[in-house]
């Protein structure tokens, strides 16, 4: 059983994030899903970016830090898209994190990676927000820093393919993602 900090995408704390948390809880994990916006979730990605701009990236990161402060040092840091980047940013302050789980976005500064850190990344292929060359550079940097990185690419779906409330949703890709995520977390 792992403690997991699960951070939402730029849309905000949507039903898909809460459903993912419930799925992880059903597998025996303890999951925290803070609302980094503290306002209702956006209906579109553009509205989500507008919320992020209004609230500010620093405030979002501060809210994530506050949520993480209440959790054990070895909590798994996880996030969807923007939340993956926030989870990666927290890694520098939480060197004992059990793992880094990234859904729909990269995250983590190689300078904050401890040797052997398990990292799992799930991305659409192609992904409009995560160009292949940038993902390859990120993966090489993380591995060179000592992380044990596994990257899964899913051909065809859109960026946020695990979220059934978005046009990007792809049921088979989402199911495979959750199977892989559960296996990854079972080892923590």
Provide an overview of this structure.
The chain is an alpha/beta fold and 188 residues long. The chain has a single domain (3-186), classed as Alpha/Beta hydrolase fold, catalytic domain (Rossmann fold), CATH 3.40.50. It has six helices and six strands; from the N terminus they run βαβααβαββαβα. The protein has a six-stranded parallel β-sheet with strand order 2-1-3-4-5-6, sandwiched between helices. Helix 5 (132-144) links the parallel strand 5 and strand 6. Helix 3 packs across helix 4. The termini are close together. The mean pLDDT is 96.
Characteristics of this structure?
single chain; 188 residues; alpha/beta; Rossmann fold; six-stranded parallel β-sheet; 6 helices; 18% strand
Q: What is the number of independent domains?
A: 1
Radius of gyration: 15 Å
Number of contiguous helices? 6
The end-to-end distance, rounded to whole angstroms, is 7 Å
The dominant shape is: globular
Given as residue ranges, the uncertain stretches (5+ residues, pLDDT < 50) are none
Q: Helical proportion?
A: 25-40%
Q: Largest beta sheet, briefly?
A: 6 strands, parallel
CATH topology: Rossmann fold
Q: What CATH first level would be assigned?
A: Alpha Beta
* DSSP E strands, number: 6
Return the CATH architecture: 3-Layer(aba) Sandwich
Give the ordered list of helices and strands.
EHEHHEHEEHEH
> Which class of secondary structure composition applies to the elements?
alpha/beta
Mean pLDDT: 96
Indicate the topology.
Layout: E1 3-7, H1 15-26, E2 30-32, H2 45-55, H3 57-69, E3 76-80, H4 82-90, E4 100-103, E5 118-125, H5 132-144, E6 148-155, H6 171-186
Parallel strand pairs: 1-2, 1-3, 3-4, 4-5, 5-6
Helix pairs in contact: 3-4
């Amino acid at each position: 059983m792992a403690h997991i900090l699960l951070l939402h995408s730029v849309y905000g704390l949507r039903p898909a994030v809460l459903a993912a948390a419930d799925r992880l809880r059903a597998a025996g994990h303890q999951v925290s899903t803070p609302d980094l916006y503290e306002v209702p979730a956006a209906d579109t990605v553009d509205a989500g970016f507008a919320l992020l701009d209004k609230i500010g990236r620093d405030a979002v990161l501060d809210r994530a830090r506050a949520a993480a402060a209440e959790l054990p040092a070895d909590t798994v840091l996880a996030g969807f898209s923007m939340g993956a980047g926030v989870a990666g940013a927290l890694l520098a302050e939480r060197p004992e994190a059990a793992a880094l789980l990234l859904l729909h976005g990269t995250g983590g500064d190689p300078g904050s990676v401890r040797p052997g850190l398990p990292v799992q990344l799930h991305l659409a292929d192609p992904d409009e927000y995560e160009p292949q060359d940038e993902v390859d550079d990120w993966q090489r940097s993380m591995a060179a820093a000592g992380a044990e990185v596994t990257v899964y690419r899913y051909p065809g779906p859109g960026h946020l393919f695990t979220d059934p409330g978005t046009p990007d949703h792809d049921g088979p890709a989402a199911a495979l993602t959750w199977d892989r995520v559960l296996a990854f977390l079972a080892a923590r």
